[in-house]
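Why show two proteins at once? Because comparison is the fastest way to build intuition. When a single record is shown, students tend to memorize it. When two are placed side by side, the eye starts asking what differs. So, the first record is below.
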Amino acid sequence: MDSADGNSSNGATSPVLLTQEKTGYEAVAKEDLDVIITIIFKWVQVLFQTSPVVAAGMSAFLLSTVIFTISGVLSRVVSKTYREMNIRDQHCWNAGVVRSSVGLMLATRGMYALIWGAPDGGIVWGYNPYLQKTAAFALGVFLFETRDSLNMYLAYGVIAETLIVHHLCGVVLYIVALATRSYLFPVAVVLIEESCAPMVHIGWILTRLNMDNHWLWDLNQYLLVACWAIFRVGTDLVLWCYLLSNFSECIYGPTLPMILNFFLMIILSVYLNPYWLWTKINQFQRRNLKYKRSSSQDTPPKKGSRVRSISGNAKSAPSPNTN
């Protein structure tokens, strides 16, 4: 007779567990693909003597803090532009570095989850340690980002409503997923959408370097729009396919996580992602309009045209790179 932990009374391992060990997300070869995060998980778990799930969440918050600090120190040493920025823009610079690097880590884990597919138990009750630690890591990241967004508002008066909503929704989503051990697969796959974060920050840095009229800015912006359509809008469509094709499974699952997942998917796919995609496309028009106005102001009047004189101490035209 098998014991509660799946081992037989004579010490032999159950054939079911043997199969799961060979095909599950925790297979050594697959885990090694994410070796950096795995090392951090284990280091934090040993250091703080905590569970793997708590260690994953703590790792994300600590890693984000370390990256933020290193970015500030190195940028101050190597970048003249950074040193000339005000404190608010320096904060945005470092926060963007965190969002870019950690976002790629989240997107990588989400891509692995999508490639490997939903585990045994389906999209609602499918569980394995990889998905659970991914959700915990994402929770730590979203807690850091929520704190950062609120800090930007309280310290500098910068209100990013959609970003705050996005981060708060992420915190609630991953807390519920971890508490109920449900919907771990879709909440891991949705992290693919964080893959666009590096290009968002690169565009911001190029603008601060007065290079928003350079071909590099154009190239980055075109890549950003393309990746946004593929990895954000495309991931939304994939998740809707999973949710709707397994709708009966969702109906018979836990009510609160089901409502939360469908509600947040509607917000993400109907409001946030289309709105953000529109803003990225609109940045082309805003940039072109800014430099068109600048060139028209710098163009001397044609010969014979009337020029209205301005008396007094007229202020010079604003710099084309003034935000």
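Second record. Ask yourself what differs from the first in the token line.
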Amino acid sequence: DMASHSLAMKVARSVLARPIISRTAAVCRADLIRNNCSRTLASAAADAPLFDADVTALYVKIFNQMRPTWQRHIDAMNRHAASPPATVLDIASGPGQPAAMIAETFKSARVLSSDFSPVMVEQAKKLSTDLGLKNMECEVLDMTDMVNIPSNSIDVCTASFGYMFASDLGKALEETYRVLRPGGLLTATMWIEMPMIPVAATIMEEVLGHAPPPPRINPLSLKQVSSFAVPLKKAGFEQLSSDENIVNFDFGTDPDFSWRIGTVTILSKLKELAADGKHGDVMATAKKIFARETATWTNPATSRLVSPDAVYRLVVAKKPEAE
């Protein structure tokens, strides 16, 4: 009714008048200089995977092809939320495309794009500026310790292929639960099948001459339904839906570009191996193996290298209403 709508608008305006990041973050940033702010944003970022400019640029190009997956989050918000969100936290936003799309869609919402990697956050800031998104903020943030975000302050948390990066998935979900308001939504995507992963594994094994150790970050670590559903429930969430979707990646027609973007998940490691000089011409070897392993991916009509279906799951969950 009109009275309820008026009250909701007043609450929304009150929330929008406050920044998502609390004063604690500002205090922590000041304390960085003195190195005495316990578990600050910078200490979290120090443990993050490092991406040089080359790898970051390739991730940006990958992310640009994933708009259909970002749209799934927005569709879920429209389907499950009683009203448009006033505050959205995008966890592990990388170079910011998921958060930017949300900010473009919900123009009255304050959207926080967060990531563990300072390099990625700088890319997100640039994107926000380029798009003129006044309602998008960008911060380095550890999803397992979001101390600078007040409890019960966020309407929707989104995580696009991000929870596999958590050092402790249980803690990450507990923190997500804490910052969400009662009745708030979580939308999260995770990979089920990723054609580039076995290709990358083959490259690493042949370059090293033996099977590589298990990766610190496994993009398929949440492939099994229970691997996410169990800690989700333990954190206190009520799961609303779970469905599978597909996306394909276009690696273009230039073989040099194709192999680099197709191996972006291991490119930093390949560069390290090339630098130590113990494994021959690592980059040339990797390029040759990539061409061999993806020979059937080329579209004969366009000569473009396009991946087979990458399958992902979208999970939507809710923090129960306060009793």
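One difference worth noting in the second protein: Confidence is low (pLDDT under 50) at residues 1-19, 21-49.
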